[in-house]
Amino acid sequence: MTIKLDARIPAGPLAEKWDKHRFEMKLVNPANKRKYSVIVVGSGLAGASAAATLSELGYQVSCFCYQDSPRRAHSIAAQGGINAAKNYRNDGDSVQRLFYDTIKGGDFRAREANVYRLAQVSVDIIDQCVAQGVPFAREYGGLLANRSFGGAQVSRTFYARGQTGQQLLIGAYQAL
Length: 176
Ligand SMILES: Cc1cc2nc3c(=O)[nH]c(=O)nc-3n(C[C@H](O)[C@H](O)[C@H](O)COP(=O)(O)OP(=O)(O)OC[C@H]3O[C@@H](n4cnc5c(N)ncnc54)[C@H](O)[C@@H]3O)c2cc1C
Hints:
The protein has helices at 17-24, 45-57, 95-105, 112-131, 164-175, and strands spanning 37-41, 60-64, 82-83, 157-158. The chain has 176 residues and is mainly α. It folds into 2 domains: 32-78 and 163-176, no CATH class; 82-159, no CATH class. Helix 2 packs parallel to helix 5 (164-175) and helix 3 packs across helix 4. It starts with 16 loop residues before the first helix and ends with a helix. Flavin-adenine dinucleotide (FAD) binds at residues 41-47, 64-67, 73-75, 77-82, 164-165.
């Protein structure tokens, strides 16, 4: 039996695939959203964030996990930080450069359109996490600190000491 791998990545130019797809998707009337039930399996950073965001939008969401607490997903192990192309340091960062570094860091095996999307939304995700109360490291002046991480030539990693994953999970859990 052969398994056909189909990531169902939308058509179009690389940088526009997901934007175009989102634009072409039908919107749901706000009054109808509560009529839809969404099941999310797992409460790691992906599951918990998706569940919290979909609930915020008005859908009926059930998020399932089998640890003693939703906060104990494997995401707790992530320590170094979270990359975002905010270019706070003005050291030449951009969505394109984060995309390129991530593809290269993944030995050119990642799905390019999805990595591009990751680089695009990275900019807003930091703000969302801050709004959820994630205590990212700050400069003495109060601005969010950045460090260079994983061999990157630019400083784009937002971090909370060596506990970034844990702190992000607590933020997502609170949002749940
Ligand atoms: C040691 C380490 C360090 C890392 N450092 C970094 C870093 O510095 N920066 C960075 O960006 N990334 C880092 N990563 C990668 C990053 O942590 C992961 O890619 C990310 O956390 C994955 O999140 P997730 O929600 O997809 O998966 P998970 O956090 O693994 O969540 C999946 C959840 O689904 C649950 N689950 C699975 N099956 C079922 C089921 N049938 N029913 C119910 N629940 C189920 C699991 O128990 C788990 O809780 C690191 C990873 C590791 C391991």
